[in-house]
Amino acid sequence: MFWNKEMETLSLEKLRELQLERLKKVVKYAYERVPFYRKKFDEVGIKPEDIKSLEDIKYIPFTSKADLREVYPFGMFAVPLSEIVEIHSSSGTTGKPVVMGYTKNDLEVWKEVMARSLTMIGITREDIIQIAYGYGLFTGGLGFHYGALTIGATIVPVSAGNTRRQIELMRDFGTTVLCCTPSYALYLAEYAKDEMGIDPSGLRLRMGSFGAEMWTEEMRREIEKRFGIKAYNVYGLTEIIGPGVAHECQEQNGLHIWEDHFYPEIIDPETGEPLTDGERGELVLTTLTKEGVPMIRFRTRDITSLLPGECACGRTGRRIERIRGRSDDMIKVRGVMLFPYQIEQAILEIQGVEPHYQIILTRPHHLDEIEVQVEMSKETFSDEVREIEALRKKLEKRIEETVGIRVKVTLVEPKTIPRFEGKAKRVIDKREI
Amino acid sequence: MKIKQISVFLENKKGRLYEALKTLAQAGVNIRALSIADTSDFGILRMIVNKPEEAKKALEEGGFTTKITHVIAVGVRDEPGGLAEILKILYENDINVEYVYAFVEKSGEEALVVLRTNNLEKTIDILQAKGVKLLDSKAVENL
């Protein structure tokens, strides 16, 4: 199902034409109205008129989260406050918060992209949509609210938290769509079953749109199984607009970016050089239509790739793969870019090995060495040296196949690798550079 | 005729062997035979003890990865060529020895060795047929 078939299936040629026209316009707009952009452009000696093709975007300096914090609160606004109708803000757990202002038209864009996202997975006005993302300065709750309002679904604006009530509402109202973070969805399923004796798969729920945190295919399958629903991946960020920058279609194979509003690039997070479709790197986004706070080449820190090829659903906008990590977690070894999750993936492919590992980087003879410590488990322990050696070799081979460089695997005793609540520290860099 | 051997995974780290043996001491386990197979990164401590199940439990509670495997205990004439004689029988019968190590004690006039081969059943049959003395678990516990 399409919300805006014309735009969603626009021919690539026309889409690129439209993007270029909008890019030129937004660059000029930002340069003229936001001192921050003017200064950045002037520093590298670029003028809005220099942008003659989409490729020329690479000459424009990046905008980082740190930049946005520096101009707190309203330094990025391109219009007077009287034009701003709504303000959202990121939590600011790692410093000053980032503040975004929306004009009336920005809200229209947000409604449009959210309406497309929800319609794409088959949500209609017949659905009862329970929004369990937080309402407030966080964009999750209101973003979904605007989308659901636009398509005319019945909204249950419950916001986040109060787990028992969430489940009672789902049961009593016959909620058909659940929107929340994937980890909260799993918690809801567990709570319903263990604390309330309600079988989550017996609810009327038929699908969910989950995001606002990194999650895996395994989690998707788990959510789908427990609730007996289809679980879709949503992507967005406050700096760009909130949820609705990209969303999965029913193929569940990558998230379509609404390219007529958000222009995506993938760059090498270390050099800033653009990468081609299919290559994995950091996602950089430029808003093509936003008025309140135009965002030019914003570095999302999210690692993904633009999937090449057309999607079976018929939409022409490119897809990003599921977010694979944060560029802050990236390590570069002997010139090769790698992420802890790649090593984790390789380890987990080998039967019986526990997902507890640590990566240690050293530079003993002017050359980087990677040691991956993996915990020996009861299942994999053998009395025979050669079997343990074989396991070690198998891990080394699998990791090398995945990341493309040789590593040394060391098997360590169980429970000797530190456990972390929340964000794990997987990499210990002992290189002296 | 198989007896239980307990194997422990040890990282090559200072004090790990001591920790393992201390754990056994505290559990009142007596070691009858012991060997260590080592590589540059890790070692496997193999032991015959008087109480294998208790030993395993204590070690696992102490955070060690352990495994019980089967081996045979062979009585060997305590004179030059005693062990060679046994190995010759195995060689002639196409049996590969995976490892061998000695007990602390003797059984009467015989030395005792722990033997693991690629085919324990066949080893037992052949050695018994040749009149070689094998100890059962009871005999090992009572050493």
TrEMBL record, chain A:
Q: Name the UniProt key words of this record, in alphabetical order.
A: Ligase, Nucleotide-binding
Location of the AMP-dependent ligase C-terminal domain: 335-431
Q: Which reaction does it catalyse?
A: 2-phenylacetate + ATP + CoA = phenylacetyl-CoA + AMP + diphosphate
- EC no. given is 6.2.1.30
One GO MF term on file is:
nucleotide binding
Q: Does the keyword NAD apply?
A: no
Task: Please report a single Pfam family linked to this protein.
Answer: AMP-binding_C_2
Please name the pathway: Aromatic compound metabolism; phenylacetate degradation
Q: Which superkingdom does the taxonomy of this entry point to?
A: Bacteria
How would you classify this enzyme at the top EC level? ligase
Residue ranges constituting the AMP-dependent synthetase/ligase domain according to the UniProt record: 90-285
Signal peptide start-end:
none
Query: GO biological process annotations for this chain's record?
Result: phenylacetate catabolic process
Gene3D superfamilies for this protein: 3.30.300.30, N-terminal domain of ligase-like
Similarity remark: Belongs to the phenylacetyl-CoA ligase family.
**Quaternary context:** Monomer.
Q: What does this chain do?
A: Catalyzes the activation of phenylacetic acid (PA) to phenylacetyl-CoA (PA-CoA).
Name of this protein: Phenylacetate-coenzyme A ligase
Species of origin reads: Caldimicrobium thiodismutans
Automatic annotation (TrEMBL), chain B:
- CDD domains, alphabetically? ACT_Bt0572_1 (cd04908), ACT_Bt0572_2 (cd04882)
Q: Which domain of life is it from?
A: Bacteria
Q: Which InterPro entries match?
A: ACT-like_dom_sf, ACT_dom, ACT_dom_pair
Q: List residues of the ACT domain.
A: 71-143
The record's annotation in SUPFAM superfamilies points to: ACT-like
Which Pfam families does the record associate with it?
Answer: ACT_8
Protein name (record): Acetolactate synthase
Organism the protein comes from: Caldimicrobium thiodismutans
Q: Please name the taxonomic classification of the source.
A: Bacteria, Pseudomonadati, Thermodesulfobacteriota, Thermodesulfobacteria, Thermodesulfobacteriales
